[in-house]
């Protein structure tokens, strides 16, 4: 879209993050708690035909993505994750 501040790839990422929050932010808090993030990760792994994450794998991943260390993932943190995946 000419003149748009966001490219189509950016819009796709934003749409994906919106979809994730609609599906997994079950308490409507606007952030994803660890349990909600575990569901996201395990669903993605299952869709890719991979085994579910172990507790150690998940905790390592979560610590890497939770850049501010508040034990929840914000939309910004999830956006970074989506662009990596």
Tell me what portion of residues adopts beta-strand conformation. under 5%
Strand order of the largest sheet: 1-2
CATH class of the domain at 27-84: Mainly Alpha
What letter string, H or E per element, gives the SSE order? Answer: HEHHEH
Query: What would you report as the Rg, rounded to the nearest angstrom?
Result: 14 Å
Strand tally: 2
Number of helices: 4
* CATH homologous superfamily annotation of the domain at 27-84: EF-hand
Specify the oligomeric state. Answer: single chain
Regions with little confidence, pLDDT below 50 for 5+ residues: none
Distance linking N and C termini: 25 Å
Structural class call reads: mainly alpha
Q: Could you report the average pLDDT, rounded to the nearest whole number?
A: 90
CATH second-level architecture of the domain at 27-84: Orthogonal Bundle
Helix content: 55-70%
The profile of the biggest β sheet is: 2 strands, antiparallel
CATH topology of the domain at 27-84: Recoverin, domain 1
General shape: globular
Q: Quick gist of this model?
A:
The protein has helices spanning 8-24, 34-47, 55-65, 75-84; strands at 32-33, 72-73. With 85 residues, it is mostly helical.
């Amino acid at each position: 879209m000419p003149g748009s501040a966001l490219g189509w790839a950016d819009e796709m990422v934003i749409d994906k993050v919106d979809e994730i929050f609609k599906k997994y932010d079950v308490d409507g808090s606007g952030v994803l708690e660890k349990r909600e993030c575990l569901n996201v990760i395990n669903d993605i792994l299952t869709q890719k035909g991979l085994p579910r994450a172990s507790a150690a794998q998940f905790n390592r991943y979560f610590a890497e993505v939770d850049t501010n260390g508040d034990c929840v993932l914000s939309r910004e943190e999830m956006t970074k994750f989506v662009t990596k995946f």
